[in-house]
Structure formats: C-alpha cells, structure tokens
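Hi L.,

You mentioned the student needs an example of a multi-chain input paired with its predicted structure. This one should do, with 223 residues in total across all chains.
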Amino acid sequence: MFKCDQCSERCIASNLPRQLLDDLGKNIAQIEFKKGDNIFREGALSQSVAFLKCGIVKLHLHGPVKEKILRIVKAPTYIGLPTSISDNINHFSATAIIDTTVCFIDLHQFREFIYNNGKFAYDIMVEMCENELLDYQRYTNQSQKQLPGMIAETILCLSDRIFNSNRFNFPLTQSELGDLVGTSRESVSRILSDFSQNKIIAFNGKELNILNRDVLEEISAKG
DNA sequence: GCATTAACCACAG
DNA sequence: CTGTGGTTAATGC
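Structure written out for the whole complex:
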C-alpha cells in the first residue's frame, strides 16, 4: 500500500504540514499508466484530483470537427485542476504519451487542504495563473502566426519546457502535432520536411535534433 | 492577374 | 503513420 510519508517526489504533499500527510495517505491512490493509456476521460464523472508524479501527458478535447490537443504537460504538476474543481464532469481528457505515474487524491480531502492551508492553496494558484498566461500567449500566437511559425514555436517549446534539450524523442505523431497547433497532418508533414531539408532540424526516426536554433527562433518570431 | 498559404483528397510506401 | 501530388479557396500585392 502506497504511503505519502515514504514518497520522496516533490508533489502535492511537499508543502503540507507533516501531520496532514497521514490524512492524505488514506485518501490517495497512485497508479502507473503506459504510453497511450487514458488517465481520465472527457464526459466522465470525477471525484478526484489528479497529480502527475512522473511522465508526460497530453490534455485533449473533442472539438466540433476534430480532436484538439490543449496542452502537453510534464511532471510534476496537477493535471486537470480546472476540470476537477469547477465541475464534477470532466471537460477534457488526459492521455499518457510516455509511461507515467499519477496520484489521484480524493476531491473532498483536497478541498479540506485548500480550506485549511493558505500556502498550499497559494502555490496552486500561482501555477494556474502561470498556465493561464501561457495559454493566452499561445492562443493569440495561434490565431496570428502562420503555420511554420507555430510549428517552430511548438518545437522550441517542447525543447525548452518539456525536455530541456536540443535533442529528444519526439513524443507526438504528426497528426497529433496538427491537432495541437490547429492544422492538418499534411501541412505538418510538409513543414517538417521543409525544416529538415533546410538543415534546421533532423529526424532519426522519432528522435528530433535541433540543428539551427537561431533560424527556428526566427521563424517562430516572424510567424 | 499572379503568388502565396493552407486545406482537402487520394494514393502509396 | 507519413510523404507527396493535384486541386481548390482565400487573401494579398
């Protein structure tokens, strides 16, 4: 049986007073997911808050015409707080894109922690505000940049925020990348091969290598 | 008009 | 799942 007080990950419990750890341990379930596994599903009833302990996850939603990927997130972070707190029906889905570990916390327990622990609540607010600002930025970019700019931006974002490296295993299919930036898989394919031909990036199978970061940043900025 | 951008379709590895 | 060619529509010199 999993116990929070034996867990060394930086997580939901990190900022809690020690005596609350026991309470938390009684109302938490830690689960592993394989790449491709659904973690929670749009439309389903939810009585818990999900905390991504390790791994990478896509948050996605059925749009009026096709799937839309909202964000790619990596541990450690909450996944789906907006949908856990404001409504007990999930407004979007979460799917593991690599093997991941998630802790589910009972929603009532979580609420208690928020009510009783200002620091705990404040830290969560800070993260949600940062995310909201990033989303505002992304949505304005998405409506004004041309496609090569959006693809370049997304590659840089994955490199900087998710993998902290110029070389990483690309976690999405081209069609998913299309769903993320709001374009067709064909356009993604053309832009990626164009970047490759111009020696801006290189693919070794699924491994992406950023060869010319300056040009990529220029394309991203110019839109 | 002509060029550019990007979507949709189809078909092939 | 990916790459590419043909076609079409919208937009901008």
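You could point out the following to them. The two ends of chain A are 51 Å apart (CA to CA). The first strand of chain A starts at residue 28 and ends at 33.

Best wishes,
N.
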